[in-house]
Amino acid sequence: MTSLDSVFAAYIIGWAVFFVFYLTVAKRTSTLREELDRLKNSLNRGK
Amino acid sequence: MWKRAMTGAIVLFLVGAAAYASFFIAPEEKTMHVLQRIFYFHAAAAWAGMTAFSVCFVANLLYVWRRSEKWDSLGVSSAEVGLAFITVVLITGPIWAKPAWGIYWTWDARLTSTFVLWLLYISYLLLRTLIEEPDRRALLSALFGIFSFIDVPIVFGAIRWWRTQHPAPVIMGGPGSGLEPTMRKVFFFSVLALHALMVFLIAERYRLEKLRTDVEVLRREAEAI
Questions:
Q1: A22 in contact with B, Cβ within 8 Å
Q2: Fewest C-beta atoms under 10 Å: which of A7, B76, B79, B191?
Q3: B116 CB-near residues (< 8 Å, 6+ apart)
Q4: Which chain B residue has the Cα nearest residue A9?
Q5: In this complex, is the C-beta atom of A34 within 8 Å of any C-beta atom belonging to chain B?
């Protein structure tokens, strides 16, 4: 691996970590939002 | 919604500009040449990670003092984001070390204390998954977070107090240390860009935590009916 390859590898892997982290946060948020809507609906039906 | 998208776009622009400056504006260093350009990402990510853990520490102290849920949410959000940044540091470091030192890793004081820091905050997050009761979970994890933060000044001081394979500090390193003026500007711009990313990610993660709390409250209500 040349020095330039190492630099590109460091930047690409680094940005990939941040991107994957952001995606997991977005995914967990959307799952929880669905769960929240489902719970609200079931509570409204129960009243 | 558009405010979040706008903030995201600004953060993306800043990190893109920082990457451009690291590759095309910063002058080439004399001994490591192009390889040294990893520094602008690696060191700036380390600074942002340490700031995130500092936010976590303050949030943990405030939780122990005030017992308010928002400090617990901020604590776990900043711990997770700090962990993402330190993961980047632990990946980019060895990629830089192999061509520079001939080895990916060595157990010197700086590298070891950073690895221990990573393990401590993984343990902080694991601890939270093991405790069901919200108040107990928040208090115990806040106390563990306060304890974990002890390693942050050790990581900072490791290259100042002990002889290490890791290079001596170029910022706040005392007499004889320092960066060429353009390199210094590019470095501090990278630090700014990665701090903007860190704040954006903490805000996104905090929103998730608030949502989780709302779901927990509604679940309890649903179970009570």
A1: yes
A2: B191
A3: B151
A4: B95
A5: no
- The answer to whether the CB atoms of B95 and A6 lie below 8 A apart is yes
Query: Which amino acid type is present at position B2?
Result: W
Locate B36 and state its tokens: 């040294």
Residue A47 pLDDT = 63
Beta-carbon contacts of A35 under 8 Å, excluding residues fewer than 6 positions away, are: B215
The alpha helices in chain B, defined as continuous H runs, are 2-20, 39-66, 69-101, 109-130, 134-148, 151-161, 181-224
| Residues pairing with B29 in the sheet | B33
Q: Which residues of B touch A (CB under 8 A)?
A: 19, 32-35, 37-38, 41-42, 45, 80-81, 84, 87-88, 91-92, 95-96, 98-99, 197, 201, 204-205, 207-208, 211-212, 214-215, 218-219, 221-222, 225
Query: What is the pTM for the complete model shown?
Result: 0.94
pLDDT of residue A36: 94
